[in-house]
From TrEMBL:
This is YihD family protein. It holds the Pfam family DUF1040. InterPro entries: DUF1040, YihD_sf.
Amino acid sequence: MTCHRIEELLALLEPEWNQASDQSLVQFLMTLAKEAGWNKPLEELSDDVLIYHLKMRHQDKKAAIPGLQKDYEEDFKTAILRARGLIE
């Protein structure tokens, strides 16, 4: 994990964990994993799952995932034409 990812994860984790200060870090990570629908063992939980879940935790369930919104096209025809390079 790069330093940037560690800093991002800690910045996202701190305010959320402060709200659940009655839980230990491991308990809180287990809570996050369960909320994210993680069914595998906790030691297999990736930082990507934690980062994206923490970013989206209090968002509308239909909200776009950060990083994907920039590529979003509401109109299918426009999306196809843009993908083929016919329009900018």
